[in-house]
Amino acid sequence: MVGSRRTVSRTPVNALRHRTMPAARRRPGRTSAATWPVCAVLTLVVLGISLPHDDADKGVNRVGAGRTCRSVLPVDQELSCGTYGFGDLRYVCPAPDEPWHCSRTTQVQIRNTGPSTVYVTVIHGPRPGERRQGPEREIAPGHTAGLRPGKGDLLFDLTLRGAGPVKTVTVVSAR
Q1: From the CB of residue 139, how many other CB atoms can be counted at a distance below 10 Å?
Q2: Who's near 162: CB < 8 A, 6+ residues apart?
Q3: Are 160 and 84 in contact (CB under 8 A)?
Q4: Cβ-proximal residues to 149 (8 Å cutoff; 6+ apart), any chain
Q5: pLDDT tens digits along 79-98
Q6: What is the pTM of this model?
């Protein structure tokens, strides 16, 4: 083997790898673009599941006996029961599948079913977009209170706050 020469390729090995890399780099980009919508949908699903909601809600967004509003927010924060529990307080409907027979809510009677005193405020107004806040009502554990909108007003929402770790009110009746 004296005098034999080995042929050495002058093309570096890295150059061979780099020729195939752009094609490999494009594939994750396409996967990444498809992944973003999937991640967004999963995030929305997780948020929908994790937000507080009424266990008795069967898809009908109307207030009725047995509906619950529950808060574990700090003392200085109010929870909107219309958003997280009671549903649409403006109208009382005799049957969930007949929304055209709804009448204006004139009173919602609630019971404090939690372990601590709660403070409830009525949000009302003459028409959508025009809202007023009524005085705050204190309701001791186990006690019931009737809440009404102003004369001729629509009852839009109730807010709930309290000093204890868990605040819970349940609708006794709506008329």
Answers
A1: 21
A2: 71, 75, 114, 116, 117, 118, 119
A3: no
A4: 105, 106, 122, 124, 125, 134, 155, 156
A5: 999 888 888 888 888 776 66
A6: 0.63
Strand 144-147 with 154-162, pairing: unpaired
The three-state secondary structure class of 4 is: coil
Instruction: Yes or no: say if 145 and 120 are a contact pair by the CB < 8 Å rule.
Output: yes
Q: Tell me if residue 154 falls in helix, strand or coil.
A: strand
The sign one gets for the Cα dihedral 99, 101, 104, 106 is negative
- 83 vs 37: CA distance, rounded Å: 27
How does the average pLDDT of the chain come out, rounded?
77
pLDDT at 107: 94
Q: Which amino acid is at 41?
A: V
